[in-house]
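Extended Data, record Mitochondrial nucleoid factor 1
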Amino acid sequence: MAATRYRRFLKLCEEWPVDASKWGRDLGSHLRGRVAQAFREGENTQVANPEDCDQMYESLVRIHTNYHKNKIT
């Protein structure tokens, strides 16, 4: 199951743009660093708390897709 989580995070990283003008404070590059740190062993990484991992992924997807901006009130 960790392999699926890892692939989902990688796909999100690929879709997330990197702004070179925001060196050191760009969310896309920070996200890539955190994913690399969290999944040091790639697909073989054991996720300590899968629920928190899934919640973090869903939150990042909502930020990436502007969920709340596009939400119809």
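Summary. Residues 2-70 form one domain.
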